[in-house]
Specification:
CATH topology of the largest domain: Rossmann fold
Mean pLDDT: 77
Distance between the termini: 39 Å
Number of strands: 9
Order of helices and strands: HEHEHEHEEHEHHEHEHHE
Strand order of the largest sheet: 3-4-9-8-5-6-7
Helix content: 25-40%
Low-confidence stretches: 104-110, 175-181, 245-258
CATH architecture of the largest domain: 3-Layer(aba) Sandwich
Shape: elongated
CATH superfamily of the largest domain: HUPs
Largest sheet: 7 strands, mixed
Structural class: alpha/beta
Length: about 280
């Protein structure tokens, strides 16, 4: 219920209206952070003591007006990330929307402990909202390592945002590339770009309309730096990353360089978890 969640709430309302979906506002009270003693132990006679749900409804209605009437509210007590994942599973949610952990002066994302555990443990996509919801997601970049997880991330993104322009982005770093012949390197890179992009989009699950609105960009260099620069230079609304365990783009970066990736990215981030076929 802090100001850090305002943008996430606004985006969730916009998406719920766009998809005609039910929106649940979930709030978890952490016992470890709840004060055990209060100075005023005898409230005034006129003071009402609403339940946590009633108080949350009052705050949402104060902030959102009549828009709050369409939101179902759940308030529970426990470890925030564990309880949020349990609530999402129990309610059969398709998407978890959350704000950033905190914001620095430069407006970069930071991966706090709750968000970190939420992202790692959620079987459904997690949308981390950083920007104001001033427009629909119109330009989306999907980070790819050309794996099945990346393809599933592309397909889910395309289904959720059928009117958006999509870009598949692959960044890679070649060891000792400085010792290679520059002209040969660029020529070989161009050939590889076309072959990988064509093969990836040739999958039978990618229909012709999706191919028509998807560009492929492959660049040499630090993946997190390249992706961040591309998002900023092209005014991207949403970045999508597919995750499928060790070796996936997000999971490969979640260790030593995950904080760098998230702190460098502008805009909102959607993490889509790979679900193997049964």
């Amino acid at each position: 219920m802090s100001c850090r969640c305002d943008r996430a709430l606004d985006r969730a309302i916009q998406l719920a209206r766009e998809w005609d979906a039910e929106l649940i506002a979930a709030h978890v009270i952490d016992p470890a952070k709840t004060g055990q003693f209060r100075f005023d132990r005898k409230p005034a006679s006129w003071r009402r003591l609403p339940s946590p749900v009633d108080r949350m409804k009052w705050r949402l209605r104060r902030d959102l007006g009549t828009a709050a009437d369409a939101i179902r509210i759940l308030v529970e007590e426990g470890d925030p990330p564990e309880m949020l994942l349990e609530m999402a599973a129990r309610e059969d949610c398709d998407l978890i929307v959350t704000g950033i952990a905190r914001d620095e002066t430069l407006g970069r994302m930071l991966l706090g402990n709750t968000l970190n555990r939420l992202v790692r443990g959620s079987p459904v996509p997690v949308l981390v909202v950083h920007d104001r919801a001033v427009r629909h997601y119109r330009d989306i970049v999907v980070g790819t390592d050309f794996s099945e997880a990346s393809l599933q991330a592309l397909l889910i993104t395309a289904a959720c945002f059928p009117a958006a322009a999509l870009t598949l982005f692959h960044g890679y770093d070649v060891p000792f590339s400085g010792y290679l012949d520059e002209q040969d390197f660029k020529r070989d890179l161009g050939v590889m770009e076309k072959e990988l992009g064509d093969k990836f989009l040739a999958d039978e699950r990618v229909d012709e309309p999706l191919r028509g609105r998807t560009d492929v960009v492959i660049a040499h260099g630090s993946p997190e730096r390249l992706l961040s620069d591309y998002v900023e230079d092209h005014d991207i609304d949403l970045t999508v990353i597919g995750s499928h365990g060790r070796g996936a783009l997000f999971d490969a970066l979640i260790g030593s360089t995950a904080k760098t990736l998230l702190e460098m990215l502008e805009g909102d981030l959607l993490i889509v978890h790979y679900r193997p076929a049964d």
